[in-house]
Design a protein that fits this description.
binds flavin-adenine dinucleotide, 407 residues, elongated, 7-stranded mixed β-sheet, 6-stranded mixed β-sheet, alpha/beta, 2 domains, single chain, FAD/NAD(P)-binding domain
Length: 407
């Protein structure tokens, strides 16, 4: 019998680490290549939705996932003009609610599951620089370095994120439209008025939105949405000035806490938000999944979940073809089938992701009026008991399509 087919997976984010594990446990040879030596060096958000948790459970990783450091917020508190107006609890019937999970620990867990399989190789600190082309087909990757290593494979899966090298080298890059906002992220100690693992805090004012999440490590992760490109002005005004802006939005208590911990701001950084969807995710010998083909906005905490769901669907289509000997045409057809199955969900989720910023950055008088009205009605308890979860919430929590692991 010949050697088992070999798949190179570039990038060990959630998409790559999950797919590599799913293929390795079926005894296919898998080489997973990750440029970072430490997963903590790449901040990729910490919110996992029920759809992503379900994907991990389907992979048989429920217990390993539950054992990771995590916080389970049970509600979202809304504040308008710095005043608390209403708490929305996640419905009791939900088996899994969103969780704040340590991403470095989650990725280490996925890689460890892969490493338990004999056919799995992990190249930590290796950076994919190019594709090896033969006869119009990619047949492997070249790693960057003084003595560049070549790794040959039946298929290259680009899971190397929003700045994907595989995408570029496979000629799949496309022009895209910029988003309207960026996000400033930082962590501070948890303020005393927010309990560990307690409710997510959403602070709204016309034209502004700031979110604060109690994290798995009992800190407060703050995400402040700003107009795209406006960080230069903020930086010029200085950290004290923009912290004071956030303090106006969050109200006096949390505001004073943020200012008090000004020096303890952990890794504040500005996320240049991009959100788009490639028309083509495949080239001969190449498949892209995750952010490599659909970089996601942080709105609704979707990217990690969509990446895990991509991995499940990719495994469903690839395993039978790899099992049958990995004929190039059959592999390319399987890759096209992955795109065909995943495209509608990603398109729908990204459509929803674009909605909140459009409303948030409006400063028209009626936006202020609607916020006050909504706050007043919410205080009266209207009409919470009568409404179903709106479509946008259902989509963000559970996804759009039914994704089942079949292999
Ligand atoms: C600040 C921020 C906050 C976010 N918050 C959330 C959230 O709360 N919830 C949520 O669901 N989503 C969130 N997202 C989106 C989410 O992080 C991404 O959608 C998700 O990580 C995509 O997974 P991926 O595996 O496709 O790519 P990534 O997670 O980006 O992983 C790509 C991996 O490839 C590696 N890599 C890159 N280039 C190479 C190369 N040439 N060779 C080898 N390796 C390479 C990278 O080091 C990285 O580990 C956030 C994103 C950011 C940036």
């Amino acid at each position: 019998m010949g050697a088992r087919p070999h798949v190179v997976v570039a990038g060990a984010g959630p998409a790559g680490a999950a797919l590599a594990y799913l293929l390795a446990r079926r005894d296919f040879r898998v080489t997973l290549i990750e440029r970072q030596t430490d997963f903590a060096r790449e901040f990729r958000g910490e919110i996992l939705m029920p759809s992503g948790i379900d994907a991990l459970r389907q992979m048989g990783l429920g217990p390993a996932f539950d054992a990771l450091p995590q916080a389970r917020p049970q509600a979202i508190d809304f504040h308008v003009h710095g005043r608390f107006v209403q708490r929305f609890a996640f419905p009791d019937f939900m088996e899994d609610t969103p969780r704040m999970v340590s991403q470095p620990r989650m990725l280490e867990m996925l890689v460890a599951q892969g490493a338990a399989c004999e056919s799995f190789r992990f190249v930590r600190g290796g950076s994919v620089a190019d594709l090896i082309e033969e006869g119009g087909r990619s047949v492997g990757v070249r790693l960057r370095g003084d003595a560049p290593e070549e790794i040959r494979a039946d298929l290259v899966v680009g899971c190397d994120g929003r700045g994907s090298v595989v995408r570029r080298r496979a000629g799949l890059d496309e022009p895209r439209n910029p988003e309207s906002f960026d996000v400033i992220w930082f962590k501070v100690p948890l303020p005393p008025q927010i309990e560990p693992g307690g409710a997510v805090q959403a602070f709204l004012r016309p034209g502004q939105l700031c979110l604060a999440f109690p994290t798995f490590d009992e800190r407060l992760q703050v995400a402040w949405l700003i107009r795209k490109g406006s960080y230069g002005d903020l930086r010029e005004r200085g950290t004290d000035a923009w912290l004071a802006d956030i303090a106006v939005q969050t109200g006096p208590e949390i505001g004073a806490h943020l200012i008090r911990h000004r020096d303890a701001l952990e890794s504040p950084f500005v996320l240049d938000v991009v959100c788009y969807l490639l028309e083509r995710w495949t080239a001969p010998g190449v498949l892209l999944i995750g952010d490599a083909c659909h970089p996601m906005s942080p709105v609704g905490g979707q990217g990690l979940n969509i990446a895990l769901r991509d991995a499940l669907v990719a495994a469903n289509h690839l395993v039978p073809v790899l099992e049958a000997g990995a004929a190039p045409d059959a592999l390319d057809a399987a890759c096209a089938a992955v795109q065909a199955e995943r495209f509608p969900e990603v398109a729908e989720v990204e459509r929803y992701q674009r909605m909140p910023p459009r409303v948030v950055f409006r400063t028209d008088w009626w936006v202020g009026a609607v916020l006050w009205l909504a706050a007043g009605l919410a205080r009266l308890g209207f009409p919470r008991s009568r409404v179903r979860l709106p479509a946008i919430t259902r989509t963000f929590l559970h996804g759009v399509t039914d994704v089942r692991l079949q292999v």
